[in-house]
Amino acid sequence: MRVLVIEDTADLAEAIRTYLGREGHAVDLAADCAEAGLALDLAAYDGIVLDLGLPDGSGLDLLRQRRRGGLRTPVVILTARDQIGDRIAGLDSGADDYVVKPVDLGELAARLRANARRSEGDPAAEVQLGPFRVDRARARIWQGPDEIRLTAREWAVLDALLAARGRVLSRQALEDRLYDFDAAVSGNAVEVYVSRLRTKLGRGVIETRRGIGYQIP
User: Fold this and answer.
1) Are strands 2-6 and 26-30 parallel, antiparallel or unpaired?
2) Quick one: pLDDT band at residue 76, thresholds 50, 70, 90?
3) Are 9 and 32 in contact (CB under 8 A)?
4) What is each CA distance from 100 to 3, 84, 108, 146, in whole angstroms?
5) How far is 2 from 48, CA to CA, in rounded Å?
6) I want to staple 183 with a disulfide (CB 3.0 to 4.6 A). Which of 22, 106, 114, 179 is the partner?
């Protein structure tokens, strides 16, 4: 996934980025409404973590504005506000989930994944891919009793293609899910990861649409 974390507490924002990055996700950070708006205008995200008390405005106002503008990305509110009225206001403003600080980062990551799967139209964590059983929640894949080990980047490519199953993703679309704004991207990174996946899973799992991109049929 590519995730936008809108959080003005720098230590917490970096901790979330580090945790999600270890899972292979690309994470952009925004410390206020203005930075968040710019990021949302420049990139497409699979999930958003939103604090409510931002230095230059209300996270709820930002959420309402973006939902009115057509934003469909799953949004998980992460806030210290723990009253029932706050939860109701957040969910009624367009949030998909509401988490109160302090939060376990593993739980936050799981909520992001679950909301992303629901937005794709398939909330199931386990899917079948030919002879392979894939657990998207735990980022693991088996062929029979044997687990196949994937790196975080290999998994990120596979999961993006699974999320778009039946549709072609361009190299640029895959890069957007792999790398945040600060990352240095080599010109053939996607091709390298696809090649490694084919070595581990077989060439027929990922199809190439020459001049267009890749897909899992």
Assistant:
1) parallel
2) very high
3) no
4) 19, 11, 10, 38
5) 9
6) 179
pLDDT at 103 (0 to 100): 92
Span between the terminal Cα atoms of the chain, in Å: 20
Cα-based torsion angle of the residue sequence 142, 16, 66, 45 in order, rounded to the nearest 10 degrees: -40
- Work out the burial of residue 35: count CB atoms within 10 Å of its CB; fewer than 13 is exposed, 13-18 middle, 19 or more buried: middle
Q: How many CA atoms lie within 13 A of 195 on its CB side?
A: 5
CA atoms within 13 A on the CB side of 95: 24
User: Residue 209: is its pLDDT beyond 80?
Assistant: yes
The count of other CB atoms within 10 Å of the CB of residue 77 is 27
Query: pLDDT above 70 covers what percent of the chain?
Result: 99
Residue 215 · residue 169 · CB < 8 Å: yes
Cis peptide before 102 (omega within 30 of 0): yes
Model pLDDT, residue 177: 83
Residue type, 212: I
8 A C-beta contact, residue 7 and residue 31: yes
* Residue 3 · residue 19 · CB < 8 Å: no
Residue 3's CB: how many other CB atoms inside 10 A? 26
